[in-house]
Amino acid sequence: MTPRQLTILSKIRNEPYLIGKKLGFSKLTLLHNEWIKEMVFGREDKTLQAHRGSYKTTCVSISLFLIIILFPNLRVKFFRKTDAGVKEIIRQVSMMLKTSFAKLLVWEIWGVDLKLIRDSATEIHTNLTDDPRGVSQLSASGFKASKTGQHFDIIFTDDIVTIEDRTSKAERETTINSYYELQNIINPTGRIFNSGTPWHKDDAFTVMPKPIKYDCYQTGLMTEWDIQEKRETLPPSLFAANYELRHIASEDVIFDNPVLHGDPVKIQQSNFCQIDAAYGGEDYTAFTICKKTEGKYFVYGKLWHKHVDSCLDNIFWEKKKFNAGMIYVEENGDKGYLKKEIIRRGEKACSYWEDMNKYLKIVTYLKSEWRNVVFVEGTDQEYIDQILEFNENAEHDDAPDSLASIIRRLWNRKNEEDRISHFGF
């Protein structure tokens, strides 16, 4: 290989987004450079979630173009939700390969004139390989199509989770089962790259590798005005899914637009914290530290899908980390068991009897103070999401119940010393 070829390949390896710019995609940034590098040169299964308009699908099409040229012996499969969506991307890749830039690039790397042997709405194959398997370098189909008979070195899924998955449990299950089928067609040394936006807390992203997320506040691709315009023109649930990459309930939502990224220092030496305990079943154990200062409720929340006994070591560690005070627990369901267990293990606890309707408590206290709630860094995203998804018919309410209970304790008191005295600590 000549020094010039090595220079070209090194440039592509380190700055592949420049190829995209040469092909006319002028808005690509160094962020997209990292995405394309992972798509083209990565070795492991990955999942990328990015907001609408972030050019993630553009990066996929550029990556398919580069893989065809750089690794002609690899066989790639591309899936989108529908056949129509597939054709759009394959047509884009085909048009890139027909440019004079592509022909020059191939000549510099391989010393041959680039020709497309197969060029249809669902397949692309070039003269860069004489692989005897008969499978096109790139083939594509809608995600519900049959997945038997062929095997691939790389599989790309892009937007296989859509609004249909948000509104239909049957659709979510179909997408999940189809995703499992990919294991039957990926080669043992192959990899799967997924990209898209989430639509439902139980959608197919739950069975993919944990996603790397880039919401509208991170990428720098949307101005504050752009974000506000989308917020005003979309229903809250769709804005959250498409631009914040989070799930909230549909239009009966009670809580939206949380204030995030508070300074954890603000909850240091809080006088008490709260546990909403799970004793099995589908419930979660929620733990909340909250301190009212400067007119704001600074909140640190953790959530575990476990029996409370399995969470106590973690809770005590979190409590110690922030030097939080008394642990505050409800005694309705366990007749004082949790309080006794906490005390037995060397921590201070106070129990109370809950006689207020849970929904009324959450709406009365948490909703009333929502504009003043600030979630500090380190709070579990699932804890926040459970609050954002809360409504009268919510399946889970452990996090909002825990936070509402502790806000009620802090309700309209002059300072924490007054509150401690009032509650007899």
Strand content: 15-25%
Overall strand count: 15
Helix content: 25-40%
Distance between the termini: 78 Å
- Summarize the biggest pleated sheet: 8 strands, mixed
Q: Number of helical segments?
A: 16
How would you state the average pLDDT, rounded? 90
CATH class of the largest domain: Alpha Beta
CATH architecture of the largest domain: 3-Layer(aba) Sandwich
> In the CATH hierarchy, what is the superfamily of the largest domain?
P-loop containing nucleotide triphosphate hydrolases
| Backbone CA Rg | 27 Å
Structural class category: alpha/beta
Dominant shape: elongated
What low-confidence regions span 5 or more consecutive residues with pLDDT below 50?
414-425
CATH fold naming of the largest domain: Rossmann fold
Spatially, the strands of the biggest sheet line up as 3-4-5-2-6-7-1-8
Number of domains: 2
Describe the structure in brief.
With 425 residues, this protein is of the alpha/beta class.
Question: What's the SSE blueprint?
Answer:
Blueprint: H1 3-14, H2 17-22, H3 30-41, E1 46-50, H4 56-70, E2 76-80, H5 83-97, H6 100-110, E3 116-119, E4 123-126, E5 138-142, E6 152-158, H7 163-167, H8 169-181, E7 186-196, E8 212-214, H9 224-233, H10 236-244, E9 259-262, E10 272-276, E11 285-293, E12 296-304, H11 312-321, E13 326-330, H12 337-344, E14 349-352, H13 358-369, E15 373-376, H14 381-388, H15 398-410, H16 416-422
Parallel strand pairs: 1-7, 1-8, 2-5, 2-6, 6-7, 9-15, 10-13, 12-15, 13-14
Antiparallel strand pairs: 3-4, 4-5, 10-11, 11-12
